[in-house]
Amino acid sequence: MTEETKDYIEYTLETDSELRFEIEDKDAKVQVMLFSGFAEMFGTELVKKKKYNFGCGAKVAIFTYQGCVLHLWGKTDVSYISKETPMVQYLNCHAALEQLRTQAEEKDERGPIAMVVGPTDVGKSTLCRILLNYAVRLGRRPLYADTDVGQGALSIPGTIGTILVERPASIEDGLSMTAPLVYHFGYKTPSGNNTLYKAVVSKMAEVTLESMNVNKKTKHSGIIINTCGWVKGDGYAILAHTAQAFEVNAVFVLDQERLYNELLRDMPSFVRVVLLSKSGGVVERSKEQRAEARDQRIKEYFYGSKTPFYPFSFEVKFQDLKLYKIGAPPLPDSCMPIGMKAEDNKTKLVAVTPSSSLLHHILAVSFAESNEDDVIGTNVAGFVCVTDVDMERQAITILSPQPRPLPNTLLLLSDLQFMDSHA
Ligand code: ATP
Asked: What ipTM, to 2 d.p.?
C-alpha cells in the first residue's frame, strides 16, 4: 500500500513550546492550520481547522500552552520549534495586571497603566500585543498607546497614537486600527526634536488618561504603552518623561538589566518595575529593513494592503496652503527675546514658504484651523504626500486618501518622505 503523500509539514508541539517561522521570498504563500489541540499567535487564539495565510515579511511564532499539532503549507525561510520561550513570564505579567484590574473594578478606580520598555528588537510591540490580546480575551477593553515614532504602527511613522482595543488582533492583519487618536511629531526618532517629542507625548498622555473616563470598562482595563528602543542618555530621559506623563504604575523592561536598574532607582516607589527575558525568536532588523518597513507602512496608508485603497491625486495652489512646521532653528539664549529660552524655539510653529524641497514630503492634515490654536496638542485627521512641485504654476500635487478639496486646516510638514512609485 502506498502512503498518501502530504503536501504539508506536520509539527507536533509539546506544552509551552512554539513554532517559529519567517518568510522572505516575495512570492511565497504560506498557510498554517491548527489541526488539534490549542494554539495562539502573539496572544490571539487560532481557530481549529482554519487555514491562515502568511506572506513575505512574516515573522511568526505560534505558541501552545497545552500542546498541539500544526500543519504548514508552502515555503518558509526558517522554521523550527522552540521550547525556550518567555511566554509563561509574560502570562504572569498579564495575571498581575488582571489582579489590578479586578481591584480597580471593586474600587471604581483607574486600572493598571503599564509601559513596555527595552532596546531595539527585543519584542516590545509583540509583548504589548500579547498583553492586549489576553486582556480583551477576558472581556477587558484596554487602551493601547504607541509612542514608538519609528514604526508609527497605529498610523504612519513620525506619529504617535492611541487606540481602544475591543477585540483580539487578527492573526493575519494584526490589531484593528479603527479610529486611532494620532499626533504629528514629524521625525522617525525622538532625537529629531526631543523637546517637541516630550510635549507631544504629554498631550497624548493627557487625552488618553481623560479618555479612560469615557466608560467604566476602559477605565478599569487600563493602558498598555509601547515605547521606542532608544534607552540611553536622552532616550532614557524620554522614557522617564513618558512614564510620568502617563502616570504609569508598572514598567516591563525587556532584556536589559542596566535599564531595569536605572528605572528601579528613578521610578517612584509605587511603580512596579519588572525585568523580563526577550524571546529568542524576536527577529533583529537592520537599518535598511527598518527604513523599508517605514516605507511599506506609508505605502499601506495610501494604497491599503489586502484591501486596496484608491488614493486621489490633485493640485493645490501655494496660496491655498496653510503650511507650517514645528521647531525653528536654534538660536543661542542671548539672541532670544527677553523671557524666552532657546528650548522654546523647538516647539514654535513656523510658516513654511512652499519650494521644491517639499517634494516627496509627508504633510499631516491637522484638525487645528488656525496658528492661534494649540497646534502641537491637536490631533491629526490624516496625511497627504507631495508628489510634485511646480514653481512656475505655484502649485503642488498631492497624493491624498480623500478627494479634493483639502480641509481648510493647517498642514504640518514632516521630515519623512515617501516616493510614490504608483504615480
Ligand atoms: P523595535 O525595536 O522596532 O521597536 P520591538 O522590540 O518592538 O522592535 P517587535 O516588533 O515586537 O520588536 O518584534 C520584532 C519582530 O520579531 C516582529 O516581526 C515579530 O513578529 C517577531 N517576533 C516577535 N516574537 C517572536 C517569536 N517568539 N518568534 C518569532 N518571531 C517573533
From this structure: 0.97
